[in-house]
Amino acid sequence: MASTNQSPEYQQAEKHFLQAQTDEERLVCLEEMIRQAPKHKSGESMRANLKTRYIKLKEKLERIKRTKKSAGKAGIKKEGLQAVLIGLTSSGKSSILSVLTNAKPAISPVQFTTKQPMLGTLNYSEVKIQIVDMPAVESEYFDTGIAHTADVLITVITSISDLEKILSLLHSNSEKLIVYNKIDLLNEYERRKLEAQLKSRKIDALFFSAKTSENIQELKENLFLKFHKIRIYTKQPKHPADLDPVIMSPNSTVKDIAEKIFHGFSQKVREARVSGPSSKFPNQIVGLSHVLRDKDIVEFRTD
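The structure assignment produced for this chain is given below.
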């Protein structure tokens, strides 16, 4: 690479580059080589080549850095129904986690406060939902793996343009619940105008305020509906129904829930009775193929 047009300073920087032991040292040397490279027109090709090498090496080091950070993250064990909070920095995700669950995340006006996933549990109508607050999608700490495996993505926005930015950064087929946060900052006229804009763009968003908890019940209900699950309560004869429901898919049958309790249990069932939305009357005797509905109570008799 040596040339009579190169200054002694450049040649010294190039010598250090060739002697460098690490990529970090090579990056520093390349910076110095770019500074000392000939500035005349005939040196344009050299400067362009050096800058290209510098950019590629810097990108390589950043990839290694991200991989190490990702490897050092605490794993998130998915338990039951899982929803993940995603959004841009300062959208209020951590505040939403705080009002929905028992978690106490760090909440600050400083951007990129959340640097690792935070966990909380939402108890909704006897159903436990795991809520994960992720670092901002534009943050280097954001973990796409967790977002891609979530049952539901609670997509938090504070402007319509936020949604486009989030979708451009994250491509996921997970069910999405769009939450328009900080609605308390808008007056009635601004709300009506925003509703019209969302409707014209066919964006179905739930208005919410983490500060005042406005529409918190609607948020919980809409979140549960996004899982597309039904709650089935079981009971033993002469005993009240269990307080904790069994979470099933829509159109599940009596046999399905029997097998969910434990494999082979349906073969031991002598009689099944159902009370609730799918029954014609309380304690209706039904067959194993009976299709259940949300909040049904199923009683099994095996003797």
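Interim note for the steering committee: The chain has three domains: 8-71, 81-226, 230-301. The first strand starts at residue 81 and ends at 87.
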